[in-house]
């Protein structure tokens, strides 16, 4: 038999490629050749997994008979968890069909696992099936439910699954970190400035308590923050200030300034104008007026200015449902666009806003960014190009629904206005050259690397209360729409307190490489015959070639 040359194509196949394939198969090593490295775990994920010291078990409720799109999600989830287990054998998992294994529905609900009802089309018939796209992480007493499907309205299954796959690694590893964490970071909510009531803030507290040790910060003297409150503030990793309506004193501003200079993260939700929808619905007209919180110089130091003028967006807005009349004693409702409730729609790739539902703002004002050295300013949400400003004091009337595109008194055309920004960098104290610094021992003039989020709307964190019961954050009970306020604020907290850079995983983009369905339908017959006849033609050609070679050699 003739010797096979090493440099020949057959030699390369036998002596290089085939051994390499066998080695990779035996070792379990996989080569990720995708452009976006979708099958490679990030360094942040590996760091979290290496920190898991005790066995942890994950049940994934993606087993059973469901549409092909969800089979893809199942496959991607299984692949990621297999990689988790390779990095750390303490992580184990199992796929479970909750319906087939007869797990009671009440048990699933108590775990925070809710069903999804899907249309299933087979043989021209449509039926509905119920699935539970969740993972359930168990680590001793710590148990965490992980939604595997992102919550996003008005998207088809294929797009929804693709967005869910993009977020899959982040959702799993961030929740796994929570399940293995024995020391939760503390989040303080300032209670002193006539902020939202406990019922109106219940939704935010619920989302904060999922991942953090959250609680109120109440001044010891019941009047204002003083040096006596500083030890408690130092324990807080982040401080939330939600819709203050009482002005801050200079002493309080120094304490907050030094909280930031010492590395404390802050989430500000500020109303610069007093305008309440309840008043408008009762009287059909209200007179908004500016609120002076004595924070102008404070935010100016960080390169921000919050303007006391209402933003009207006549392109991106929520609907308002109200009683328009009565027929036979029954109230008749009308749903109309309301430009004072603009929607925040993510138009950038920031990890806080990516893949979430539109965020509903209520009577927001705008933020001007002035720029500061060593501070990176990222716009999270802004209005559309069809925006006008209503200077205050000025009347706001329900009659404006009928003239959404018209300019009213003291209104003028404007450019897009910013509703929310994220700041990151080394902040400089607003009091570094002022006499107030003497009131704070060990005064610091600059901060380490720090973060801050400012939102020009205090109602973004307010949930509605109906008959004494708080509704989920972002839920409009009249229009039955669920906005993305909860996910936005949850991501905001995670961004502020993310010391593992896990939030960057939310920026992962997975390109859909799908076949053209219309072209498939048009050329279906051609490709069916092609796939049927081509193998037969190849076999016939090989048979003829073999017969000819045999005849030539032995004939």
From TrEMBL:
UniProt KW Transcription regulation keyword: no
Domain DUF7088: 35-137
Membrane-spanning parts: 12-31, 526-549
Keyword tags: Membrane, Transmembrane, Transmembrane helix
Domain ABC-type uncharacterised transport system positions: 185-492
Pfam families reported for this sequence: ABC_transp_aux (PF09822), DUF7088 (PF23357)
Descriptive protein name: Gliding motility-associated ABC transporter substrate-binding protein GldG
Keyword flag S-adenosyl-L-methionine: no
Domain of life the protein comes from: Bacteria
């Amino acid at each position: 038999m003739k010797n096979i040359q090493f440099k020949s194509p057959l030699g390369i196949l036998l002596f290089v490629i085939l051994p390499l394939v066998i080695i990779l198969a035996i070792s379990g090593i996989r080569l990720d050749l995708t452009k976006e490295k979708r099958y490679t775990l990030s360094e942040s994920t590996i760091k979290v997994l290496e920190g898991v010291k005790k066995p942890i078990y994950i049940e994934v409720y993606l087993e059973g008979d469901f549409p092909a799109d969800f089979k893809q999600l199942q496959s991607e989830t299984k692949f990621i968890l297999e990689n988790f287990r390779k990095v750390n054998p303490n992580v184990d998992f199992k796929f479970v069909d909750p319906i087939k294994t007869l797990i009671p529905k009440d048990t699933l609900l108590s775990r925070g696992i809710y069903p999804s009802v899907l249309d299933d089309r087979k043989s021209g018939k449509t039926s509905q099936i119920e699935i539970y796209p969740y993972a359930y992480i168990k680590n001793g007493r710590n148990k965490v439910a992980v939604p595997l499907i992102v919550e996003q309205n008005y998207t088809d299954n294929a797009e929804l699954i693709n967005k869910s796959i993009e977020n899959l690694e982040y959702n799993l590893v961030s929740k796994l970190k929570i399940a293995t964490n024995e020391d939760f970071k503390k989040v303080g909510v300032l209670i002193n400035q006539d902020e939202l009531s406990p019922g109106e803030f219940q939704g935010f507290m619920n989302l904060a308590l999922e991942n953090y040790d959250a609680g109120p910060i109440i001044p010891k003297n019941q009047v204002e923050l003083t040096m006596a409150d500083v030890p408690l503030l130092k324990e807080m990793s982040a401080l939330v200030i939600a819709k203050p309506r009482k002005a801050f004193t200079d002493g309080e501003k120094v304490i907050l300034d030094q909280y930031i200079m010492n590395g404390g993260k802050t989430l500000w939700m500020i109303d610069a104008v007093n305008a309440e929808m309840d008043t408008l619905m009762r009287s059909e007209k209200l007179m908004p007026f500016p609120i002076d919180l004595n924070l102008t110089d404070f935010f100016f130091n960080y390169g921000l200015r919050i303007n006391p003028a209402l933003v009207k967006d006549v392109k991106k807005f929520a609907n308002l449902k109200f009683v328009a009349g009565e027929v036979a004693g029954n109230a008749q409702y009308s749903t109309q666009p309301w430009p004072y409730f603009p929607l925040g729609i993510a138009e950038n790739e920031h990890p806080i806003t990516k893949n979430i539902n539109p965020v509903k703002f209520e009577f927001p004002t705008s933020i001007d960014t002035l720029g500061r050295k060593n501070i990176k300013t990222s716009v999270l949400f802004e209005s559309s190009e069809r925006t006008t400003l209503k200077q205050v004091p000025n009347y706001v009337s329900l009659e404006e629904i009928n003239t959404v595109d018209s300019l009213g008194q003291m209104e003028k055309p404007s450019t897009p206005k910013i509703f929310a920004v994220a700041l990151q960098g080394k902040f400089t104290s607003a009091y570094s050259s002022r006499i107030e610094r003497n009131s704070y021992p060990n005064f610091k003039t600059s901060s380490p690397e720090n973060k801050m989020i400012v939102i020009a709307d205090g109602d973004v964190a307010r949930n509605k209360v109906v008959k004494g019961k708080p509704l989920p954050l972002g839920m409009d009970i009249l229009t039955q729409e669920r906005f993305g306020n909860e996910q936005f604020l949850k991501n905001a907290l995670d961004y502020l307190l993310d010391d593992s850079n896990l939030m960057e995983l939310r920026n992962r983009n997975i390109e859909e490489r799908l076949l053209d369905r219309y072209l498939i339908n048009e050329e279906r017959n051609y490709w069916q015959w092609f796939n049927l006849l081509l193998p037969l033609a190849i076999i016939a050609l090989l048979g003829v070639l073999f017969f000819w070679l045999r005849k030539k050699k032995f004939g």
